[in-house]
Structures are given as structure tokens and as C-alpha cells.
Amino acid sequence: MTQQQEAPRTSAAPAPGVYHYEQLVGEWPTRFHLRVDPDGGGLLLANAAEGATLSPVGVQMAQGVLEGRSDEAIITDIKRAFRPATQEQVVTDLIKVRGMIVDLAEPGDNYPVTNLGGAGISAWERQLAAPLRADVVQGEPDTMRSIMHALWNAGVPHITVSVEPEAEAAQLPRIVEAAGDIGMITGLRSVASWLSDGIIHEAAMAGLDHLDLLYVAGSPQEHDAIAGEGDYEKVLAGFEQCRALELCPVAEVPLIASNADEVDEIAAKLVERGVTNLVFFALVCPDDDEQAQAAGALPARALPQVGVLVEETAEDSECRYLWAPPVRFDNAKSLAEQVRAGPRTAGDIAMRVEADGSVFPARGAANCAGNLTTDTWEQIWSNECFARYRERLQAPTRCSDCPGLEICAADCPKDPRGWSDDTQGGETQ
Predict the structure, then answer these.
(1) Rounded to an integer, what distance in angstroms lies between the CA atom of residue 139 and that of residue 331?
(2) CB atoms < 10 A from the CB of 118, how many?
(3) Is it true that the peptide bond before 416 is cis, omega within 30 degrees of 0?
(4) Distance of CA 81 to the CA centre of its chain
(5) CA–CA separation, 117 and 125 (whole Å)
(6) Helix/strand/coil percent split, the chain, to 5
């Protein structure tokens, strides 16, 4: 367990926050992150890979098991805290929790992919203390350390550093190591050409959990036209290096006019390379924005059909995927520039943190909720932009046109108000 936050060793319910444990389960060394939210429920992650939501009873049982407490002591505490639970009920639940922990610790993939409302974790229905992931723009190492400590203290167990081409790549292994020292799940997001083989190797040795690389298309010419000359070979080499380093490769796939109907071919080529974790983000525009469509953006009306294709492809290819919130196309920037920049966040249970510590929710206009280096987390989380964002997530977004699509789980993909909008002035509200 890390030194940053010691788990209480009494029968009292654990305080909200993240608790990090490292122990052997069978023959396998396992990292556990127990995230406790204000309502007493929580989330248990194992090896930065598999996750399970927990009720307040499950949280206390899981904590007791991970601390090595005896069944007798756990059962006594649970019966005292959750009356009128019977001995039989508590014993049955404890057996289930112990079995769940063993199941989560089974070796396998090591990337926590979560679709809001999908078969995985749908914790927004509960009172969360904070998002589960932060996508942080690469910055100066000392500032990054301050940001990571603030995130950890807020209850955020997972950080992905967004690599900047102008920033000093040699600093990345130090940043990864600092996150690992805290106990965080750590990833890097980049265009392959921005990273050398040596930096990837050093970051992996420093404790990197996953590497997200932009992958535009299965055609080298089509990919390089967006990502840069020679990048296609670099991204394939990066995925191969991940395999050699036992580092989880993740393909970040932009959905634009030129490749939206090639999703199945893209996924097939990635699976052939051993890449089975995909993050999709669409560059979109209103249906009447002819300038953006001419530049390569998808019109809003196309997103449900694209969503169907993604789901069918994922099922056929047996890969896992994550929907990032759609990104509103900015006519003041080139298509290539916006694709290389990527989504604001890789999912709806994440938030964006700029290099200076400024915080932004996953969707909506680019309104800053506060700064992690100067504001308390309580001030940031209660900011109007996060409150408005949570309200939209909780509002019904399903309709008869495309029932059951994962892309619709957080917000209607055709509604600009649910897009990530970093255009000047931020048109979505």
C-alpha cells in the first residue's frame, strides 16, 4: 500500500479516496486500486486492467481482504455496521468478494477500458468523488508532480499524459516514474513520430501501463497524410515494441470522412498486430456546416450509423473499444492538426488537465473549472461546468432512432451541446 494514504485498520467505513495495495494473489503479483466515493460505494481495479463496482458493503469487505484481515474480523465488522444483516448473508457475500478479487487478479490485458453505460463500469449513477481518469497535457516535471498529487488526493487513480511535440520528450520517463511512485495507473498518448524507441523503453521501465498511439488508417499513404511522413511505420514499430516490453498498446482512431467507412478494415489490421484496445473519437460538425465537411469532418447525422459500424466491428473482431466524446471541428484549424491533437478526453469518466493545472470537463464548451495547483478539489468539482456536465449525463439521451448504441450512453451524438468544443468562443453550452 502506498504511503500517500494509509487505509484505516478499524471497522469504520473507509474515507473517500484511492487506496493502493500490492500483494500476491496465488503466484501472481497484483496491484489493486480501491476507489471509495462519498456514498460509500466504490470501484476496485486490479493490475490497471479489470474493474468492478462495489456497494458500501463490498467496499468494506474488499478493504478487509486486501489488508489481510481474517474472515471472522471482517464478518464481525460488517454485521455491526450493516444491521440487520444475518451471518449467512455476510458469509455468502464475503465468499463472493474474495472470489471476485481472485478473478480480477488473473493475468491478462492491462488497459482499463470503460464505456459509460456499457457492460463495464457505469458509476455516474452514483455520487462520485471525482472522475476516474485524468488526461493531462505534458508539462514541466515539478508542476506535473504537483498536479498528480492533487489528482491522487482527489481520488483519481488513472492518469494519461498527452505528449506535446514541442515539449522535452526526455522528461517523460521521470513523469511516469513520479506517477508510479504515487501509485497511479499511468499511460502516454502520442503521435508515434513524437516518441523515440529509447523514450518508450525508458518509460516502460519507469512503470508505464499503456501507450496510446494515433492510428488513422490501414493505408500508409492515408495515415501519413494526416499524422506526418513516415509515421505509419513508426506506429507499427511502436506497437511491436509494446509487445516486446509487455506494455499495453492502444490505438487511438479518429473518425473522419475519409476513413469512417473503413472501421472494420482498420480494426482487422490492428488485431493482426495484436492491438485489441481501441479508442474512437469523431471530428464532427453540424449538418449545415459545409466548410467543415469539405475539410473532412463528419456531419452530425452520420454518427449513429458510424456507431453501429464500430459496435459490429468490435464484436466481430473481439476487440475492446472506448468512445471519446465527439470533437467539434474548428474551421480555423486544419484537419491534420485537429486529428493529431486528439480528443479532449478518452472517455466520459475522464477530465482534461492542461499543463498549468487548469481543469476541463470531458464535454461542452472549453470552460475552465479551476486549477489543481491553486484551487481545492472541492472548489473544482462543484464548479458550474462540472455540475452542468453531470446534469447532462444524468438526463435521458436515448431515442427510438438508435436505441442501445454505446455512443448514445452519455449524450446524443447528434446534439452539439454534448460535443467537446474547443473552438473560439465555445459554441456548445
Answers:
(1) 27
(2) 15
(3) no
(4) 33
(5) 9
(6) 40, 20, 40
Cα gap 62→140, rounded to integer Å: 37
Retrieve residue 236's grid coordinates: 507499427
Q: What is the distance between the alpha carbons of residues 390 and 125, in angstroms, rounded to a whole number?
A: 10
User: Residue 126, CB half-sphere, CA atoms under 13 Å: how many?
Assistant: 22
The 10s digit of each residue's pLDDT in 205-239 is: 999 999 999 999 999 999 999 999 999 999 999 99
Rounded to the nearest angstrom, the gap between the alpha carbon of residue 287 and the centroid of all alpha carbons in its chain is 29
All 3 cell numbers of residue 39?
A: 456514498
For residue 389, the model assigns a pLDDT of 75
Three-state secondary structure call for residue 302: helix
160: helix, strand or coil? strand
How does the average pLDDT of the chain come out, rounded?
85
Confidence at residue 392, expressed as pLDDT on a 0 to 100 scale: 66
Name the E strands within 16-123.
17-25, 28-36, 42-46, 50-54
Question: Phi and psi for 259 in degrees, rounded to 5?
Answer: -130, 0
Q: What is the pLDDT of residue 43?
A: 81
Nearest to 45 by CA among 143, 161, 186: 186
- Output the pLDDT for position 394: 64
Residue 3: band (very low, low, confident or very high) from pLDDT cuts 50, 70, 90: very low
The Cα 155–Cα 123 span in angstroms is 14
**Residue 396 pLDDT:** 55
What separation in angstroms does the CA of 28 have from each of 23, 57, 99, 106? 8, 26, 15, 8
Cα–Cα distance for residue pair 114/162, rounded to 1 Å: 19
DSSP string covering 48-74, please? TTEEEEE-HHHHHHHHHHHTT--HHHH
pTM: 0.82
Q: Are 248 and 209 in contact (CB under 8 A)?
A: yes
Instruction: Give the DSSP letter string of 198-234.
Output: HHHHHHHHTT--EEEEE---SSHHHHHHHH-TTHHHH
Burial of 99 (C-beta count, 10 Å sphere; 0-12/13-18/19+): exposed
How many angstroms separate the CA atoms of 200 and 241, rounded?
A: 8
Residue 46: count of CB within 10 angstroms of its CB: 25
pLDDT tens sequence across 74-112? 998 888 888 777 888 889 889 988 888 877 776 555 555
